[in-house]
Fold each of these.
Amino acid sequence: MGMEPEMYWVVGPNTDVGKTTLAVAVISVLGGAGRKTVGFKPYGARKFVDIIDLDYRGLPEGISKVFGQDAVRLASVSNVTSLDDIDLIAPVASICYPEYRNVLVVRAGSRITRNAEFFKGRSAVQLEKRADYKRILEELGVQDWLDFKETGVSFPDVPLLGRSKVEDCYRHLLKTKDIDTVVCEGAGKFLPFWGEKRVVNHIFLIQRNEIYFFKDINLKIDLDASKLLPVQNILKVLRQKTHRKAFLPFSRMQMHDTVAREAVEGLLRNTL
């Protein structure tokens, strides 16, 4: 294997702040500049109610509803990957109910690398008594959730289940695809780090209504990989670094793909 690809991180200190929209824009701009760019989201989470309310419609036929739009968008926008690679790009996915800290089920690994395992949390055990829960699982095509191994893990502890599997999926992408750049997205307010120590070349931080771009930051991350750690852990380091900044609309509804791409193009101008 050749050199490690250049790595961009997209992080934010909260959930639903636009990280995926920003990551999709970064992948699109880099791809448009001739970079062979893949998206990667090592740890992701969706609320069960959001899957039911938002993700039933708009997903390609044959794609499991539990992947959600985030993984679909990351897989589709790249000039290197397709929807066939979706569980490599999002190797660990948690479904949570009613809040992110309460894990219903976790998929760790990929069908492609043949290392996928499934686990269910205590919330799932409680819901199994409800007929409507079983009906929804059947409609989603994941009724076999009921047979998964029980675990009391909460979302920040998910690396205990999936750390080596994330590394396997990442290495498989590098082995089978012609990649020179990775855009790695965090999970909610957590850093997108997993397993091996690696250099993060550039960081996009989306916070409130601003995007900060830290070019050539080349952070060597050394974290406890047994637990996801909050973005707050590196904010003090970032504040001391040179950066470019772009302002975004105050409404998240206005933070659409075109706006994000224009912001990223401005931040990356004269750098590619």
Amino acid sequence: MGLIVQKYGGSSVADAEGLKRVASRIVATKKAGHQVAVVVSAMGDTTDGLIELAEQVSPMPNGRELDMLLTAGERISMALLAMAIGNLGHEARSFTGSQAGVLTTSAHGKARIIDVKPGRIVEALNDGAIAIVAGFQGVNQDTNDVTTLGRGGSDTTAVALAAALEADVCEIYTDVDGVYTADPRIVPTARKLNSVTYEEMLELAASGAKVLHLRCVEYARRYDLPIHVRSSFSNLEGTWVVKDHPEGANMEQAIISGVAHDKSEAKITIVGVPDRTGVAARIFQTIADTDINIDMIVQNVSAASTGLTDISFTLPKSDGLEATTILKAIQGEIGFHSLQYDDQIGKLSLVGAGMRSHPGVTATFFACLAEAGLNIEMISTSEIRISVIVREIDLEKGVKAAHTAFNLDGEDEAIVYSGTGR
């Protein structure tokens, strides 16, 4: 008898039929002799609908009240799922994030989990019930205000809960059969990976692969918790996210694990920055103080005649307005000339642990992009990743070119059961 935490995304519980299908899968796991805790997202596009409604009422909704509104989506799905399970003859108890003991920071809309104290969940499991937990939400430990974790927060809720419960595995159910070498909506011949390491999955998630959220993978790596990414629409084996590839895996052929892309970023260029000690630190500390995440950074060589340089960096489009506003507020202090904002960019990334020991990966990558007619605007690398910024309109063409150049195409067409990617 094991303890399994399962997470179901919005596409899996999009309607009544989906909820009943998920309930049947949960009950089957319970009948197999396991204790089961479930984390569930809001149904379908419920969250998007609530955001749109809020913006119709107020152009800039208050963060606290917006969080209060958005948590309603998961409350609806958790209660309905508990009812569906009850209809199958099994007891299920639903819990909000705060009732489940998910303690967070105070940043509304993008709070981080500090701790999980799952006393009520443990009690429910020990009573033989199935515990249903609302994903994406928690409670601030100081103010007791409801908070949300940002996009993909249900993944993080599930892994954090699994770690707190010392579960055997965290199963993340989505609308594709696992982690693929590229988004199968763009590259239908993308191949499903049997396994991927935490290190590789972190890079893929940070680079735009939407099947798992970055913070959830960070949590899993910290607690060495296996994640099984699979589809709620089939019974096929999915992709295991683990510390190391299983013994016998042919690592020689796994030079590249996948090609990821991201259309959610924008680029800010600070023009004419005085090239003196402490200026860059002041700029990025100002941005960090507002909890805005910076991705890629490029600083040009200072012009000898003027002592000025340009600094470019990428960040989420959703934070673009706030970032430009706070930078303009310190323009007089810093002394830069102007700001340029560009939200028509896309990030294309190549990820694979095998590139450590295979020279020529960078050359092949850049050559295939050049042949496809893509102009590279920024470059960033890690030991197992190469990322470039290109025009958003060229991004999908670049994904296909890189996927083919590194022989990642499979023979069969990947199945996308729902189309949302969650």
Amino acid sequence: MVDYDRIFSKRAKAMKASEIRELLKLTQRPGIISFAGGLPNPEAFPTKVTNEIVNELLDEMPEKVLQYGSTEGIPPLREALAERMRKRGMDVGSDHVLITHGSQQALDLISKVLLNPGDTIVVGSPTYLGATGAFRAFQANIKTVPVKEDGMDMDALDAKIEELEQRGEKPKFIYVVPTFQNPSGATMPGNKRKRLLEVASKYDVLIVEDSPYSLLRYEGEEQPHLISMDDEDRVVRLQTFSKILAPGFRIAWCVGPTELIDKMVIAKQATDLCTNPFGQYVAYKYIANGFIDEHINYIKELYDSKRLTMLEAMKEHFPKEAKWNRPEGGMFIWVKLPEYIDTREMFERAIQENVAYVVGDAFYVGDGGKNTMRVNFSHSSEEEIKEGIMKLGKVIKKEIKERKGKLRDTIISP
């Protein structure tokens, strides 16, 4: 038998399966109401229009859509995306755009071209688990700063990077989801975004601006995008069609300085040659045929109703000890329970009641978040949301009652 442990690379030996992906396996049994995955609702998939576009493409240009494409992405899609971004205040051209197989590939490519083993980066705490997984795969030294209700703590960020520099650990980049952050739902206001750019400039650090949810705003005012505020070519921005078209196409785009994009293109050539051309042409037609904005508005109306339903159900069924945010957009609500509650320990009880969430500590690089959870409102029906939150509320109340009892018994025991 082959001794694979002997022949695996050090990098492979350090890899770990996504904790959320493993937890989601437990939610697949019939009857489970799952608030765990970050899944779009199937009602949001434009099946009729997609069918029309697919037939149009196969009738009119099969020799293009079924052929290999350029590594950078098909030119009409890159130009259409650049034009849409310019309309939102981002001064980019098509040469700044790289089409990727989902934003996860962009995170992988950024890591591949920027990180040597042991290089330092800074992320929020909590932060998107898929990003830290990509960074760990390239053996990054991940440092964290707290995420508050209005996003990453800028004073803590400044102090952290100064401390790192004094130790000779200059970070390569700061990873941030400034709008409807995953998992917390926090949105960074304009003044903090300005401060973030100032800190990055002060220490000559790049910023990776991950923006998968920014088009899904249900209330409040749109905040300026970091890349639109950047005049030093230090921001690379990630966006995706997964939340506004369908995740199954795996079409996303990365925008940044041409020097960085060019190097990512070379790295991508060794990875997959090119992103799925058929899906790219579908995405392009989705824009060119004038469907995208109408569909985004439909999704926003659909998800906003679900968001409000979940917030109202939480208000009705969660105990007073539970605290949660009111996200202005995105797909998640972040819940904090008393410090003596461990949501990982409580998870099995929730599964027994046929309701699921994601344990909060999965989003922390080190310790922290044991009393938190992330719940998704986009995927379930409104009736499922009402029922699932009622069940989850009962689980939380029972857990709090039992833990309080144990704490009381511990205090009064001789």
Amino acid sequence: MSLIVQKFGGSSVADAESIKRVAKRIVETRKAGNDVVVAVSAMGDSTDELLDLANEVTPIQAPRELDMLLSAGERISMALLAMAIKSMGHDARSFTGSQAGMITDATHGAARIVDVTPVRLREALDDGAIVIVAGFQGFSRESRDITTLGRGGSDTTAVALAAALEADVCEIYTDVDGVYTADPRVVKRAHKLGRVTSEEMLELAASGAKVLHIRAVEYARRHGVTLHVRSSFNNTEGTVVYDPSRAPEGAEVEESVIAGVAVDLSEAKITVVGVPDKPGVAAKIFKIVAATNANVDVIVQNVSAAATGKTDISFTLPKADGEKALTALAGAQEAIGFGSLQYDDQIGKLSIVGNAMRNASGVSAKLFEALYEAGINIEMISTSEIRISVVTRADSVNQAAIAVHTAFGLDAAEDAVVHAGTGR
């Protein structure tokens, strides 16, 4: 008997009919002779609705109470799903994150998993029950409070459960048929990948691909969990995310040099103008930014002007961190000696990712030529061994993605099917 962990996102359990459809799929997996553990997200957009409600009550929420509020969404989903499964004649037991043994640190809103002790889950499985776990949440032994894991936390919950229970596979169900070569809502001719390496998936997720959360992919790679991204709306095979070092003999990655194209509109750019071009100044700037907990992405420093001995340093970071970083830098302007700060939140980042880029020539040339022919101006460039990212204007990044996707021969013969929701 195999043990399968399944995760269903908000669009998969958006209403009563959707919950019944998901329950039927879970029961079918159980009837096939598998033990089943399910991690479930809040219904539809209910997390956003709870956030809106909190903002109506007060613009500044206590982090502890906000976690108490937001964790309610997943508890509703888990209970309704267990009821639906029971109505089909199968035993099902629902558990909150704390009941499931999901132990986290004490950080509210973005807690990290420090341990998983699934004692009650194993007992339920031994009794022949289907186990339903509320995703996105845990319990801190340090503070003895409920915590939430942040956006994409249900993916991470599912992977953590799969690792702790030594599951055969962790199936991530979403509203598309798998991992595509681009967001099918942006690039209509994107096609589904049969397999993608965990390394490629990490880069795609970090670059804005929404189908899997980066923390979940990272956790899966670290603990050797095989992921299978599938649609909750049909029974077609999805995309297997695997570690090449653990791949079965004969398994091959996709033939294309490029596995996918990702777009990210969540970042802003800060330019520190007139920075003294001498050792230690950049260290001071980024030490100040680091103290705000902002996650810096792309960094570009211009050539120093001979007449002034000063340069400009530009970097990108999440829009949510922009104001904190600007305030911190402004407070250190005199100490550092720069001229001014510029802030731009109308940028978009496009990235191409592929393991085969390590040994392929001409990839950069093809990317830049495609952007040139589409009339797209490049503002910043960043690279790794298997990724090239460019920053451009937000209103042109989708057009850039379509052009680059076509240039690398990734277009499918027909438009991709998106069943519902936002890709999670």
